[in-house]
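Example record

The entry below shows one chain as it appears in the dataset: sequence first, then structure tokens.
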Amino acid sequence: MIRSLRRERGLSQEALADLANIDRSYMSSVERGLRNISVLNIARIAVALNVPLRDLIAPREMTRSAVNTPVVDPISEPIASEWEPGRYLSLS
């Protein structure tokens, strides 16, 4: 998402990183999904891209399978057992 918005605005990674006051190499790794990113840095990027914060943190799409996924009972089955990096939030 960040990469596509950056490109739509004709910005290089370096230019966006400068606008967001973030290191360029950090920006690169965020776009490639190699880093976890703090809400503060997401907010900085949202301001630099002139988009609402929710546009960067909302799911890209709700698939039918996601809507029909049963709720996990945290007592009988820990939620962490189903967690996968990048499964729920992707910023690239």
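Notes for this example: The chain has a mean pLDDT of 76. DSSP finds six helices and no strands in the chain.
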